[in-house]
């Protein structure tokens, strides 16, 4: 007859040789990767072959007036940089950006690009645009200057500008790499300097997929987003990440709860996708984001292509704090969703377009998924029990 | 983060054995425990104040390993670029003790894993599983009784 001590010994002996194969470095790397799925990489000292130099040359008759305009644009761009610098979650950015690396003109509008590598191996790209209506805006992106990708491009991003135009900023890894555009249209202007190439034109005339650089087309994997959040560029990036399906996707939710996080939820009949942009601290000890935004996209749904049902959900913690997102499927006419958590809290979710999303502050993920979810439609109340949703008529 | 390294080095195998005994699917458990430690690393500045970080890691790993919605999601997710290496033995332990453990109800298996392999107290086990301390004692008693009967049967068959 086995005693309790005998059983304890047998069980311990049974598992005595079981060892976790992961080592510390792998776990730490994985932990960091949770913070950073996609990094903006920069800083390759290359020179690109000029694609076209179709910059419109503006010859001003009045040199004094021109000088005043240039000085005004200088001041406006410096001001735009200071504004973006203040908004970013990054304490190592330089006070100023110096002289522009290149400038493009299109009619009354001007596009400038600055690049600087201050001490600390940080390289910064800042572009500044003055549109025909006189408005000025700027965008910053940056990354460690000593990061050298093995292939392809060291940077490629898009600016979606308020006047409907789009700029693509590219820097290839190899100096011999050429930038080419399939079916170039005359309204697209371009210029190159310091290893960078900028293409600028109407958004509908400039498709990233038509641009090839470093032997690659600017597909989804090559394009990143600027540190300065851009709504339209984010939506374009997310839509490129959606599964290639014939069925239409719609934007169910746009979640903006922090200046350092944006999340869009897209849905189709059979799947939903959550796309996230976050400016999290890469080094939490000094609260610095070294690599620019983290961008990730995940898709959930049944694998057999059947219709999405309530109960399909995904959760994940925010990188910027300990809050937890819980995002799931709701009926298209859902009016209200409440999550009942294991710790007793009840959280109301945002509901739209057949999806719900709840941001749960200070969530300890060892709690696991919410044990109870209540979804209310005009006619029915659905209550989850862990094994599916049970409908009852709404009173 | 040095204290995270200390905890990881000292307790990773304990966590792995406990979750392996509770869940049984070795590849899934390897991934789940590594992921749980990665999450612990990510939030270590706050988690280091936790009264029992190992219990936190085990619970997160149990949630990851047995959560159906997460597995369904993984089928669609961008593949993790750096999965941990797998050991030469890809299957669960298959001798009589492991088989007898696998035959137990899930909750009893978890209690055995946490009390005997992770060496957690009954109170800590109860908190981790969300059940009363008395219930932990009941599950452990029943589990050991079942194991005793199963292993005695095997012994008896072996003698015949």
- Proportion of beta-strand residues of chain B: under 5%
Largest sheet of chain A: 5 strands, antiparallel
Q: Tell me, briefly, the overall form of chain B.
A: globular
Helical fraction of chain B equals: over 70%
Order of helices and strands of chain B: HHHHHHHHH
Shape of chain A: globular
Report the structural category of chain B. mainly alpha
What share of the residues of chain A lie within helices? Answer: 10-25%
- The number of strands of chain B is 0
Tally of structural domains of chain A:
2
Give the low-confidence spans of chain B: 68-94
Oligomer: heterodimer
The percentage of residues in β strands of chain A lies in 35-45%
**Number of helical segments of chain A?**
4
Biggest interchain interface, per-side counts:
A-B, 52 and 58 residues
| Rg of chain B, Å, rounded | 17 Å
Low-pLDDT segments, ≥5 res of chain A: 36-61, 146-151
Summarize, please:
Chain A has 395 residues and is of the alpha+beta class. In chain A, 15% of the residues lie in helices and 35% in strands. The radius of gyration of chain A is 25 Å and the shape is globular.
What does this structure look like?
The complex is a heterodimer of chains A (395) and B (160). Chain A has helices spanning 4-15, 24-35, 63-87, 231-241; strands at residues 102-106, 109-116, 122-130, 136-144, 153-160, 165-172, 179-181, 189-193, 196-202, 211-213, 216-217, 250-258, 261-267, 272-278, 294-300, 313-317, 324-329, 336-340, 346-348, 350-352, 355-360, 372-376, 380-384, 389-393. With 395 residues, chain A is α+β, with helices and mostly antiparallel strands. Chain A folds into 2 domains: 63-228, no CATH class; 234-393, no CATH class. Residues 68-94 of chain B have low confidence and may be disordered. Chain B has helices at residues 2-23, 26-42, 44-47, 53-66, 68-74, 96-102, 106-117, 122-129, 133-159. Chain B is mainly alpha-helical and 160 residues long. In chain B, 74% of the residues lie in helices and 0% in strands. Chain B folds into 2 domains: 1-88, no CATH class; 93-160, Arc Repressor Mutant, subunit A, CATH 1.10.10. At the A-B interface, α1, α2, β15 and β16 of A face α1, α2, α4, α5 and α6 of B.
